[in-house]
Amino acid sequence: MIGDPFLNYFALGLLIFVVTVIFYGIIAIHDIPARIAEKRHHPHVDAIHAAGWVSLFTLHVLWPFLWIWAMHIARNAVGAFPGKMVLRQ
Asked: What gap in Å lies between CA 12 and CA 23, rounded to an integer?
């Protein structure tokens, strides 16, 4: 064994902790456009959420487009198509 065994185990524990935080952080980041869409009452929340999961497997290439898509519809709009939206009072 090289060096102090405590430091070896500490380094291993720290490495596992950092990898776990990065892994869960990436998963949490993918959900930001879906949360934005939910708060803005976007009509395509489910599609944005599903595309976020697809974006995980494409190394977040789709993620900026999902962000734009989530922000596209007005905050107080109701309806699926921009031409047929009814604004809340």
From this structure: 16
Cα–Cα distance, 45 to 26 (Å, whole number): 20
Q: Cα separation of 39 and 48, whole Å? A: 13
Q: Give the model confidence (pLDDT) of 26-39 as tens digits.
A: 989 989 999 999 99
Q: Which two tokens stand for residue 49?
A: 């959420």
**80 CB contacts (<8 Å, ≥6 apart)?**
43, 44
Whether the CB-CB separation of 16 and 23 falls below 8 Å is answered with no
The two tokens of residue 43 are: 């009509």
Its pTM stands at 0.68
Nearest Cα neighbor of 23 from 48, 56, 49 is 56
DSSP 88: -
Using DSSP, state whether 61 is helix, strand or coil.
Answer: coil
